[in-house]
Amino acid sequence: MVTPEDLECLKRIALMGGLNTPVFLKTISLGSELGFSPQTASRRLRSLEQQGFISRTLGTDGQQVTITHGGEDALRQEYCDYYRLFGRQEKSLMLNGTVQSGLGEGAYYMSLQPYADQFQRILGFTPFPGTLNIRLLPGATLQRKRLSSAEWKVVQGFESEGRTFGDVRCLPCFIRDVPCGIIIPGRTHYPEELIEVVSPEGLRKRFFLKDGDEVTIEVTL
């Protein structure tokens, strides 16, 4: 796990331009900027490299350092944490629950173009063909009642090939740093402890989730 010291070092490399191109640096200069000794700066760089957050090419007079996708994700997560603290003026509601398997119907409905086009307009992304099913923990079930006052969006139903597809209510939310949407099909009765979430990518794969793992849904009220 990345330490605060490693993260500060990673941020400094990013500010030097290492997110986009390799940057040349010496441990003595990096240590001076961070208040470290050159030896400590060197250990930080080795730690970041071992965790896969940077790649390095060593030379006789210094090194070329580039932040990897993993390093960028670590910085983005840090940004999202601070954004939750200071960036959002609205009040956020946190709902905790555990992942569970669904019936597999989400992949079919999310693949229907009339639904997908409306989700794109409402949520800003085309849904991944599938949904994440979450069973709320007991305390979160009571919190869910507050969602009745939230600004739900309506995804309009449609007819196709003689079949009618109903309206879907949708509420923007976040799971970690990923924008998502809670959905409630109009014709389906959902127990209060269950929540179905759409997202721009497969969250099970993104966060290595399996049934029983705990997740937090963040909703801005």
CATH architecture of the largest domain, by name, is Beta Barrel
Supply Rg.
22 Å
Which spans have pLDDT < 50 for at least 5 consecutive residues?
none
* CATH fold title of the largest domain: Elongation Factor Tu (Ef-tu), domain 3
Strand content: 25-35%
Structural class: alpha+beta
Number of helices: 8
CATH superfamily of the largest domain: Riboflavin kinase-like
Read across the widest sheet, the strand sequence of neighbours is 4-5-11-10-9-12
Shape label? elongated
Output the helix-strand order: HEHHEEHEHHEHEEEEEEHE
Helicity, as a percent range: 25-40%
User: Count of DSSP E strands?
Assistant: 12
Biggest sheet character: 6 strands, antiparallel, barrel
The average pLDDT is 85
* Number of structurally distinct domains: 2
Distance between the termini: 32 Å
The CATH class label of the largest domain is Mainly Beta
